[in-house]
Specification:
The complex is a heterodimer of chains A (420) and B (319). Chain A is built from 15 helices and 4 strands. Chain A has 420 residues and is mostly helical. Chain A folds into 2 domains: 238 residues, no CATH class; 143 residues, abc type-2 transporter like fold (3-Layer(aba) Sandwich), CATH 3.40.1710. Chain A is elongated, with a radius of gyration of 29 Å. In chain B, the strands form 3 sheets. Chain B has a 6-stranded mixed sheet with strand order 6-7-8-3-9-10, sandwiched between helices. Chain B folds into 2 domains: 221 residues, Rossmann fold; 74 residues, Alpha-Beta Plaits (2-Layer Sandwich). Classes of the chains: A mainly alpha (420), B alpha/beta (319). At the A-B interface, helix 1 and helix 9 of A face helix 2 and helix 3 of B.
């Protein structure tokens, strides 16, 4: 055991003395976290929205009916006061120009006749020509325009749901004989009236629900926390790649042979290498957590949970590094495959894009990456959960590590003679 | 007579159909420097690898200090030290850190380790560079540290595999002096080389190895007796001759002279083995005049290991 620790410690020192590696292990993830933080406006001050705030949006309401007014009220609601900075305007062309000049994130144009296209006329019972709400957004502000888009989409969905519900209800009433066909216009009028009178009574049929998940209501989505986590786990794969590479490098440099002519067993040598890779990864993520805590005042959550999760993801990543070393023929091979793996895992695992964005097979595929489990675990800890709540991700990472170690041992056994 | 610390009997290493080492038998006596002399690819490193328990022999027996190879590999490894041909050090660690690490691999620790590091640094002349990273060292300094690592645990038998390859003459001189010092301290050394002059300077006994076979073994006197009283003549040809084909054609032609036992071309020089230089020289000069071959100078050499190798194999040691 002592020799395993000595070899592992030696590898840790060798790794951290490599200046180029230090840049990739520590400087790059910190720099990326800062950069991405600036992009999301996370440094512009505290807000409930974790940095996304005061999105400038113009609203042009050309609708004569009540639905347009409801949407305008939605944009001006107290619940969205910190998130949006809405401004009413009558000139859609000027507003679009402001979007083009990056003065606004988006302009929402509610066309004339929008209410009439949804709610039948009280006298004639007819709907006017279909009219769509236009959201003209700035590509330079993807997050802000995305927020505006989602609010409008939510509104439209609510309206469509209401219309569909009304149609279904009326059809059911007629089918069940509770109303006669000739009474349909009267019933429609009552339903429509509800939509029209609701704003005047102060109860909007369209409400915005903002729910904060987790036990600690003060914890909310923080882009810096997301990116710090994502980058730490993303660059962990770099560290284990160079760790895996070091096994082949020792073969090339002759130090592996030299180790094996000392009274040191193969198990001790390989065990030491594995420990070295693990310790390098653990130290790297640990330093990044410490750095981001000090620099960005991040709260990573339950300390014990963080330590256990860092150990688990380091073990899983080490497994991937060993697998690389077991498969690759040369150090260059390790480097190139390792880079490809690092990028793939980073994207799939949610280091750059929240996992909730993934659909279909990607949701399952991401789970082969240590990044996915680590991100899930850190997200739980960030929102106030404890060690008990991250058992799932920890177990998954430990199982991943065990399986990969077993495969790597099998591969090394087969090719050990050629490595020596 | 000293007892053997290392014995081998019909040691063989085969890779598929290729026999890298074809059943060699020799022993190394305690306190002596034994050289394995042979050209590149002769099987020297493969032999060292088997004796240091890195490679399992295909067949044959070997013992170090009474411990069988490969059965008692751990016991063997504790008493041997190895200075490999490649510089096997950690470049980003300092000289001292390398010695600490490798000493720990030999189960050294504490004060004993610290004291030994001081001794070794002194012995290899790197005390002042102890805290500098190996990556800042010259090739010669790295070689010296490479040797130092092999000496850390005071091995009873030290394998040195071509330790002077690719370094400057000054560093080479230093290493050879170090090896002489080790002998003075009673260490037993198995030294492999393709440099005849190193084997001649250092060795008590020499084993000449070629194509995996031990073709001669003995003291230098015993080996040079194989070529009798024969002398070696080295002809330096003039006026741009002596490069490539011309030296070889000249050697081919001189082989026909009755006074010449063996003729060959090495690095543009014509090397002749003759019974007596005094008798052969007039015939050689006469031939050269007749063939219009200009000879710039002729060196007369006493029988040496190079001549022995040439005599035994028909080839130069360094072709």
């Amino acid at each position: 055991m002592k020799k395993i620790l000595i070899i592992g410690w030696k590898d840790l020192i060798v790794t951290f003395r490599d200046r180029a590696a230090l840049i990739m292990m520590l400087a790059a993830p910190l720099a990326l976290t800062v950069g991405l933080g600036f992009v999301t406006g996370s440094f512009s001050g505290n807000s409930d929205n974790g940095g996304i705030q005061d999105i400038p949006v113009a609203v042009v309401n050309q609708d004569e009916g009540e639905l347009g007014a409801v949407l305008v009220e939605t944009f001006n609601s107290p619940e969205l006061a910190g998130l949006l900075e809405p401004a009413m305007t009558a000139d859609p062309i000027q507003a679009k120009l402001q979007v083009d000049n990056d003065e606004l994130a988006a302009v929402v144009i509610i066309p004339a006749g929008f209410s009439g296209s949804v709610i039948p006329d009280q006298e004639t019972g007819e709907l006017s020509e279909a009219a769509s709400i236009e959201v003209y957004s700035s590509p330079a502000r993807p997050i802000g325009s995305g927020v505006v888009q989602s609010i409008v989409t939510g509104f439209v969905n609510q309206v469509e749901t209401g219309v569909l519900s009304g149609e279904v209800a009326i059809t059911q009433l007629v089918t069940s004989g509770l109303i006669a066909v000739q009474d349909i216009p009267q019933v429609v009028e009552q339903v429509s009236g509800r939509l029209q009178t609701a704003p005047q009574s102060g109860a909007s049929p369209i409400t915005i629900n903002r729910a904060t998940s987790g036990l600690n209501s003060e914890q909310s989505f923080n882009p810096i926390a997301f990116f710090a986590t994502g980058m730490a786990v993303f660059f962990l794969m770099y560290t284990v790649t160079i760790g895996g590479r070091s096994i082949l490098a020792e073969r090339n440099d002759g130090t592996l042979r030299r180790l094996l002519v000392t009274p040191t067993t193969t198990v001790q040598v390989l065990g030491g290498k594995v420990l070295g890779i693990f310790m390098s990864g653990f130290a790297q993520v640990g330093l990044l957590i410490l750095g981001t805590t000090l620099v960005f005042n991040l709260n990573w959550g339950d300390p014990l949970g963080v330590v256990v999760l860092v150990a688990a993801v380091s073990a899983a990543a080490t497994g991937w590094g060993l697998l690389l070393a077991g498969i690759a023929k040369t150090t260059n091979h390790v480097a190139s495959v390792g880079t490809a793996l690092m990028l793939t895992f980073g994207i799939l695992g949610g280091s750059f894009i929240p996992a909730e964005s993934f659909t279909g097979p990607l949701q399952s595929l991401r789970l082969i990456t240590p990044n996915a489990w680590a991100m899930d675990g850190f997200n739980l800890l960030n929102t106030g959960r404890t060690l008990a709540d991250i058992v799932g991700p920890v177990v998954a990472l430990v199982v991943m590590a065990a399986v990969l170690f077993a495969v790597a041992v099998f591969l090394f056994r087969r090719r050990w003679a050629s490595m020596v | 007579m000293a007892e053997p610390i290392l014995t081998t009997k019909d040691l063989k290493k085969q890779y598929g159909a290729f026999e890298a080492v074809k059943g060699i038998s020799f022993n190394v006596l305690r306190g002596e420097i034994f050289s394995l002399l042979g050209p590149n690819g002769a099987g020297k490193t493969t032999t060292i690898s088997m004796l240091s328990c890195l490679l399992e022999p295909t067949s044959g027996e070997a013992e170090v200090n009474g411990h069988k190879i490969p059965k008692e590999a751990m016991a063997v490894k504790k008493v041997i030290g190895v200075v490999p041909q490649e510089i096997a050090l950690y470049d980003t660690l300092t000289a001292k850190q390398n010695l600490v690490f490798w000493g720990q691999m030999y189960d050294m620790s504490g004060k004993a380790l610290d004291n030994r590091i001081t001794e070794v640094l002194e012995q290899i002349g790197l005390t002042e560079r102890a805290n500098d990273r190996v990556e800042t060292f010259s090739g010669g300094m790295k070689r010296r540290l490479n040797i130092g690592v092999g000496l850390m645990h005071k091995p009873q038998l030290l394998f040195m595999d071509e330790p002077t390859v690719g370094i400057d003459p000054q560093s080479r001189r230093r290493i050879l002096d170090t090896v002489q010092d080790l002998k003075g301290q009673g260490m037993t050394v198995l030294y492999t080389t393709h440099y005849m002059e190193e084997a001649e300077e250092l060795s008590d006994r020499v084993g000449i190895i070629d194509h995996g076979k031990l073709i001669a073994l003995g003291t230098q006197k015993e080996l040079t007796r194989l070529v009798g009283e024969q002398e070696t003549l080295r002809l330096h040809l003039g006026d741009g001759l002596g490069q490539g084909d011309s030296a070889e054609k000249t050697a081919e032609a001189l082989q026909t002279l009755p006074q010449v036992i063996l003729a060959g071309a090495v690095n543009g020089e014509v090397v002749l083995t003759v019974e007596a230089a005094a008798e052969a020289l007039p015939a050689i000069v006469s031939w050269a005049n007749g063939a219009n071959v200009r000879i710039r100078s002729i060196d007369i050499e006493e029988p040496n290991l190079e001549a022995v190798f040439l005599h035994l194999t028909g080839r130069a040691l360094r072709d």
